[in-house]
Design goal:
- The protein is mainly alpha-helical and 413 residues long.
- It has 2 domains: 211 residues, Up-down Bundle (Growth Hormone, Chain: A); 186 residues, Growth Hormone, Chain: A.
- Helices cover 77% and strands 0% of the residues.
- It is built from 18 helices and no strands.
- Helix 13 crosses helix 15.
- It is globular, with a radius of gyration of 21 Å.
- The two termini are 25 Å apart.
Length: 413
C-alpha cells in the first residue's frame, strides 16, 4: 500500500518509503541546524559584549545575522531552483563553516568587525536552512505532506538540549580564549549536515523546470489563500520573536534570576517544537485552517496570561503557550502556502514568503529592546494584539468563506 503513494507537489514521482526516508534525514538536518542556532543564541550577545568597545553595539552581531538571513532568502531560493535542494543545502552549510572559522578567528584576534562578518556568513546559511520544511513537502504526497513538514520541524526538540550544552562544554576549549572553541566545534556540526545531505535523494530540477516561471507573483499574491498563509506566518514569527527576545529582559526587571529566565526560554523552545510530533496528524484530521485558528487563539491566551501578572508561572506558561501557538500557525501556514503555487512558481513564492517573514522578525528584534526599556512588558503585550488579531480574523474569514484551498493550476505541473 505504501508504494502506491506518489509525490504530488513536485514533478518527480517518488515511492512513499523513499519519501519518508528523505523526510527523516531532513529532520536530522533540521536538528543539527537548530543545534547550531541555539548554541549561537546562547553566547553571541556575550561574545559581542566581550569584543565591542561600545557596549551599546553588543547585540549588533545577532542583528546582522538576522539581516543576512533576510537578504539571502530570495537568492537562496532561486539558486536551489537552478541546482536543486541537495546542492543548495550543501552550499549553505559550506558558507556556515566559513562563518564559524571567521568568528573563531575574530575571537582570537579580539576583532568585533570581523566577528560581525562571521555572524553574517552564518546568517546566510540560516536562509538556506529555512527551506528544509519546503523540501520535505516536495518529497511527500498530499496525505503525508503536513506530517512531513511537522516531522522536519520536530528536529528543534533535540536542539533545545544539544545546543546550549554544546556551547557550555566547548566554551573553554581554547582557554583562556572563551567561546572560540564553540565556534570551532560548530564546524563539525555543519559538516555533519553536508554528510547527511549526501544520503538524501531529491531529484534536481530538469532544464524545462529551471526555465519555467509560471504566473507573475502579483497574480499569485492575489489569491486569498496565499494572503492568509503569508500574513499568518509573518504575524506568528514576528510576535513570537518579539516576546521571546523581551521576556528575559522583563524577568530581569522583575528581579528574577538568570536561571529562572533559562527555564522560561527552554519551556518556550520545547513549546515551539514538541508539538511537531503531532501537529501534522492534527492538520490531517481536523484541517489546516482549524489548526491555525487554534494556534492564533493560543497567542491571544498568551497575551491574557502575560497581562494577568508577573509571577514566574505567568512568564513560563505564557512563553510556552506562545511557542505552541507559533508551531500550529507556522506549520499550518507552510502547509497552506504550498497549495497556492505550482512547481515552476516555487522559488519566487517561497523566497518571497520567507523574505517577508525574516524582514518582520528583524524589525521585531531590532525594536524589542527599545520597546521593553521605554514602555515595559505590559505595553509590549498590548502592542502585539493588533498583529495577532489580524492573523486570527483572516484565518477565521478564510475558514468560513467556503473558498477551496487549491490553485487553478496543479502543483504537480
Amino acid at each position: 500500500m505504501a508504494a502506491a503513494h506518489r509525490i504530488a507537489y513536485g514533478a518527480h514521482p517518488m515511492p512513499f518509503d523513499r519519501a519518508r526516508r528523505n523526510v527523516l534525514l531532513l529532520a536530522l538536518c533540521q536538528a543539527l541546524f537548530m543545534t547550531t542556532t541555539s548554541a549561537v543564541v546562547t553566547m553571541i550577545a556575550l561574545v559581542g559584549n566581550m569584543l565591542a568597545e561600545d557596549k551599546s553595539l553588543t547585540t549588533l552581531p545577532i542583528a546582522l545575522q538576522f539581516a543576512a538571513t533576510m537578504i539571502t532568502t530570495l537568492p537562496a531560493s532561486f539558486y536551489m531552483k537552478r541546482v536543486g535542494r541537495q546542492l543548495g543545502f550543501i552550499t549553505g552549510a559550506g558558507i556556515a563553516c566559513v562563518g564559524c572559522v571567521v568568528c573563531a578567528w575574530a575571537i582570537f584576534e579580539r576583532s568585533f568587525p570581523l566577528f560581525c562578518a562571521g555572524a553574517m556568513f552564518m546568517g546566510s546559511f540560516n536562509a538556506f536552512a529555512q527551506y528544509f520544511r519546503f523540501a520535505a513537502a516536495e518529497v511527500a504526497d498530499s496525505a503525508f505532506r503536513a506530517k512531513a513538514i511537522s516531522l522536519v520541524l520536530a528536529g528543534g526538540v533535540v536542539a533545545a538540549v544539544t545546543g546550549p550544552n554544546l556551547a557550555r562544554f566547548t566554551k573553554d576549549m581554547f582557554e583562556p580564549v572563551a567561546y572560540a572553541g564553540t565556534y570551532v566545534s560548530l564546524v563539525t556540526v555543519f559538516l555533519a549536515i553536508i554528510v547527511t545531505m549526501l544520503f538524501i535523494r531529491i531529484p534536481r530540477p530538469s532544464v524545462a523546470e529551471q526555465r519555467e516561471t509560471g504566473r507573475p507573483l502579483k497574480e499569485i499574491a492575489r489569491q486569498p489563500v496565499f494572503l492568509v498563509a503569508v500574513l499568518a506566518a509573518t504575524a506568528a514569527y514576528s510576535t513570537m520573536a518579539l516576546l521571546m527576545t523581551v521576556a528575559p529582559l522583563a524577568m530581569a526587571e522583575c528581579n528574577f534570576a538568570f536561571s529562572d529566565s533559562a527555564w522560561v526560554i527552554q519551556g518556550h523552545i520545547l513549546g515551539m517544537f514538541v508539538p511537531s510530533f503531532f501537529t501534522g496528524h492534527l492538520i490531517h484530521r481536523f484541517g489546516v485552517l482549524n489548526v491555525m485558528i487554534v494556534g492564533a487563539a493560543m497567542f491571544v491566551a498568551t497575551i491574557a496570561i502575560d497581562l494577568a501578572g508577573i509571577d514566574f508561572l505567568n512568564f513560563f506558561a505564557g512563553m510556552t503557550l506562545v511557542g505552541v501557538g507559533w508551531n500550529f500557525l507556522f506549520i499550518g501556514s507552510t502547509t497552506l502556502l504550498i497549495q497556492t503555487h505550482t512547481a515552476a512558481e516555487r522559488a519566487k513564492v517561497q523566497g518571497f514568503n520567507d523574505f517577508l517573514i525574516w524582514s518582520s522578525v528583524m524589525v521585531a528584534v531590532f525594536a524589542s529592546g527599545a520597546l521593553q526599556t521605554g514602555l515595559g512588558w505590559t505595553f509590549v503585550n498590548i502592542g502585539v494584539m493588533p498583529v495577532v488579531a489580524v492573523a486570527l480574523v483572516l484565518t477565521l474569514w478564510l475558514r468560513f468563506s467556503g473558498r477551496k484551498l487549491v490553485v487553478t493550476a496543479s502543483p504537480a505541473e
